[in-house]
C-alpha cells in the first residue's frame, strides 16, 4: 500500500464513523414527539447537528480521496498529531458535559471555559491565544445561546 493511501485512509474511516453517528442522531430524532407549541420541535437540533456532521464527513472524505488520487501526503501539521492532546480534549468534553448536566453550570461561562481549554490544548499556549480563545468562546456561546433561545425556543440555562 502506498504511503499516501495509508495516511489518508484514516480520514475516510473517521468520516464513516461521523456519518454513522449522524445516522444515530437522525434515528433518535425520529423517535421524539412532534412539536405542539414551538415552531420547530425538539427534534430540530439533533437533525441540524446530524446534517452538519454529514456535511463535514463528506468534505473530509472528499479531501482524503483527492489526496489519495494525487498521491500526496497529509499536511505536516496533521501528521504529527499527539494522542495525548486528543485525550485531553476528550477529558475536557466529559468535564464540560458533566458541569452542564450534573453541576448545573450556566451555558455561557461553561462553554467559554471549554472553548478556551480545548483551544489551548490543541494550539500553542500563549497569552495571546488565551485571550483569543476566551473571546471566541464568549462570542460563540452567546451566539449559540441567542439562536437557541430566540429562534428554537430552547432555554439551556
Mean pLDDT: 85
Q: Report the radius of gyration as a whole number of Å.
A: 19 Å
**Number of strand elements:** 0
Tell me the strand percentage band.
Answer: under 5%
Low-confidence stretches: none
Helix-strand sequence = HHHHHH
Structural class: mainly alpha
Largest sheet: none
Per the principal axes of the C-alpha atoms, what is the gross shape? globular
Helix content: over 70%
Description:
By secondary structure, this protein is an all-alpha fold. It folds into 2 domains: 3-70; 83-151, no CATH class. It contains 6 helices and no strands. The longest helix is centred in the N-terminal third of the chain and has 28 residues, at 3-30. 11% of the residues are buried.
Ordered list of secondary-structure elements with their pairings:
Layout lengths: L2 H28 L13 H27 L5 H4 L3 H19 L5 H16 L4 H24 L7
Helix pairs in contact: 1-2, 4-5, 5-6
State the gist of this model.
The protein has 157 residues and is mainly α. Helix content is 75%, strand content 0%.
List descriptors.
mainly alpha, globular, 157 residues, 2 domains, 6 helices
Amino acid at each position: 500500500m502506498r504511503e499516501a493511501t495509508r495516511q489518508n485512509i484514516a480520514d475516510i474511516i473517521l468520516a464513516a464513523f461521523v456519518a454513522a453517528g449522524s445516522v444515530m442522531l437522525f434515528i433518535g430524532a425520529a423517535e421524539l414527539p412532534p412539536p405542539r407549541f414551538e415552531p420547530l420541535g425538539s427534534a430540530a437540533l439533533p437533525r441540524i447537528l446530524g446534517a452538519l456532521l454529514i456535511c463535514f464527513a463528506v468534505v473530509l472524505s472528499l479531501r482524503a480521496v483527492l489526496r489519495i488520487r494525487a498521491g500526496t501526503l497529509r499536511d505536516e501539521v496533521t501528521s504529527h498529531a499527539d494522542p495525548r492532546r486528543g485525550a485531553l480534549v476528550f477529558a475536557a468534553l466529559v468535564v464540560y458535559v458533566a458541569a452542564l448536566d450534573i453541576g448545573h453550570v450556566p451555558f455561557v461561562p461553561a462553554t467559554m471555559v471549554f472553548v478556551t481549554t480545548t483551544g489551548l490544548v490543541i494550539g500553542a499556549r500563549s497569552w495571546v491565544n488565551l485571550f483569543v480563545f476566551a473571546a471566541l468562546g464568549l462570542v460563540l456561546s452567546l451566539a449559540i445561546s441567542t439562536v437557541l433561545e430566540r429562534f428554537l425556543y430552547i432555554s439551556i440555562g
